[in-house]
Write a structure and sequence with these properties.
This protein has 3 helices and 6 strands. It is α+β, with helices and mostly antiparallel strands. The protein has a 6-stranded antiparallel β-sheet, with helices on one face. A hairpin with a 2-residue loop joins strand 4 and strand 5. The protein is globular.
Length: about 140
């Protein structure tokens, strides 16, 4: 199965976008409540509503972190054992392109989770992450 790959450009400096993906409170604001720490090897969980075949817990681990450029997470929940990568590129001093790659979908049993996650990531990156960054900037 192919990976979910999405890119969005935000009208914010890279450090601001980085703060929204590498801070536990910010992640809770736009993604899910968690006990994330931006430390290589840190194992943590995201928690959300359970769904059929999914207990609502994503077991994650920081596989790679290069502030403020990239964050790679192991992402295990329900039938999935995948990775999520956030890559940030400074387009200008005030614009950042974020590319998300959710990879590791294998087999037909992961088809529906991939479809639902693809739609979810689109909404999260287009709306919720952008709103989170704007709220944090307004502080």
């Amino acid at each position: 199965m192919r990976a979910i790959r999405l890119s969005r450009t935000y009208n914010y400096p890279r450090d601001m976008v980085w703060a929204a993906i590498a801070d536990s409170d910010a992640l809770a604001d736009w993604l899910m409540p968690n006990d994330f720490q931006p430390v290589l090897g840190h194992a943590f969980t995201f928690r959300t509503k359970p769904a059929p075949g999914f207990d609502g817990i994503v077991h994650a681990k920081v596989l790679d972190i290069v502030p403020p450029e990239s964050l790679v997470l192991a992402w295990k929940g329900g039938p999935l054992d995948t990775t999520v990568t956030f890559d940030l590129v400074e387009v200008t001093e005030t614009e950042t392109r974020l590319t998300l790659i959710h990879d590791g979908f294998r087999g037909f049993s992961n088809l529906m989770p991939r479809v639902f996650l693809g739609m979810g990531w689109k909404n999260l990156l287009s709306r919720k992450l952008a709103d989170c960054i704007a709220r944090r900037r307004a502080r």
